[in-house]
Amino acid sequence: MFWYNGKLIDGETLELAIDDPGLLYGATVFSTLRVYQSLDNPLTSWTGHCDRIRSSLLDLGWQQPDWERSRYGAETLTKHFPILRITIFPDGREWITGRFLPVDLTQRQKYGIGALLIEPPITPPPGVIERSLPQHKTGNYLAAWLAMNKAKKFEAQEAILVDELGNWLETSTGNLWGWRDGKWWTPPIDGRILPGIMRSQLIHWLVSQNQPVGEVAFDAEWVKGLSAVAYSNSVVEVVPIHTVITSESQITYDPTHSSLEQLRRLHQSDRSHKG
């Protein structure tokens, strides 16, 4: 079941023209959100997700969708799914799909996961696996998909993308966090990573609790001083990373560090207050 161009479709296939740019080039913009009771719940951040899509469409010079119709389609699917993916084509067509939470999400949140560092090659050809137009969430997600599949070969559950200098940027599905010197740090946006909705929410919550958040490049030496590492997105919230697999070794972090529990409490507190 999914919503496409103003209609609820009961099926698992979507018909597109053979010259559709969304099919040929991944020319779409999307956002994935987790519905907490309703679209209007602050934790769902429906407005935040829509605003990011609007901004990307403006930057790319694409047509805005019928937002009222899109919301109706999203509300229809919330009766069946806790997670929605809102996709917009260049001509304004909306495509909304739903899915369920990962069955092992609670376990991952509690015990953490392993992540593979997708390092830049030492020998030619040059280049790194980096998302196309990383400041936007476009349908061209090949780099992230390749990184995740490479991570699975190492029995890791996530992949960490880097820049040409080896600085950690983001994971294949979320934003990075690190605890050091008594506060949380996250890589700066700088047009190199996605400005995640959950990232923005966490920064807002931390600052509102008088807990400053630092932004710094996660270079190879700096990350060795981190006590805890996690990643965030709107579906999984916050998940610790207990091991980072590199070409030379494995870097381990404490998935039960007290700072992580502090971050979870902030989220749970906000959910309890506003839910």
UniProtKB/TrEMBL annotation:
Keyword line: Aminotransferase, Transferase
InterPro entries: Aminotrans_IV, Aminotransferase-like, BCAT-like_C, BCAT-like_N, Class-IV_PLP-Dep_Aminotrnsfr
Cited PANTHER family: AMINO-ACID AMINOTRANSFERASE (PTHR42743), AMINODEOXYCHORISMATE LYASE (PTHR42743:SF11)
Pfam families, per the entry: Aminotran_4 (PF01063)
Domain of life of the organism encoding this protein: Bacteria
GO molecular function terms attached to this record: transaminase activity
Keyword Transferase among record annotations: yes
Protein name per its UniProtKB record: Aminotransferase class IV
Family to which this protein belongs: Belongs to the class-IV pyridoxal-phosphate-dependent aminotransferase family.
Species whose genome carries this gene: Funiculus sociatus GB2-A5
